[in-house]
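New to this. Help decode both lines:
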Amino acid sequence: MASGDQRITVVIADDEPVVREGLRLILETQGDLAVVGGAGDGREAVRMCVELRPDVLLLDVRMPSGDGLWVLEELARTQALGANATHVLMLTTFGTDEFVDEALAKGASGFMLKSSSYEELIAGVRATARGEGSLSPSVARRIIDGYVAGRRNPAVDPADIRRIADLTSRERDVLTLLGDGLSNYEIADRLTVSEHTVKSHVSRLLAKTGCRDRGQAAALARRTRGA
């Protein structure tokens, strides 16, 4: 978790040393961010998170010795993932949403393209550390476009329908916006309510749906869109 000086601690997991170093240099321009480790493969990433308990793991989707999805499974198994542990922000060079739903369902808090701007990356790390999660605007746009174009399976799992059945209309609104990748601030602005109100809605909808965190709620929102 965060160190005594309240800096956000980060581990970077990517199999390319030049990428790890570049990300480190970007993040450490910010006084509130501290990179405490770098991992070159999945197994090393799990070991570092278990030992160091960073606030955020920047995790490449495709790595040797355990890809990003495997790392998420291992962190969940060792209870090193999520609230009071490490939040995971996935990184990819690919402009598709191929892994987004599965990664979020497995506990990732967000998804960013490596081509994202410095500002987007830094904001994403901070949002992830707060437990809010983050979707790169381009990733969120692709997900939304996928639904609009009808590229996804229209059948909705009845089990998912039951999970959202008890949500109020406002909680459904918040869930939908989580699925679009919006932060608490953006949801509050969209719904013309306070951030505190949004946080309360998020807490309640997580409890009602049985989602571990915002990432799982976002995946649920996309699976049940239009249901």
Q: What stands out?
A: The longest strand covers residues 33-39.
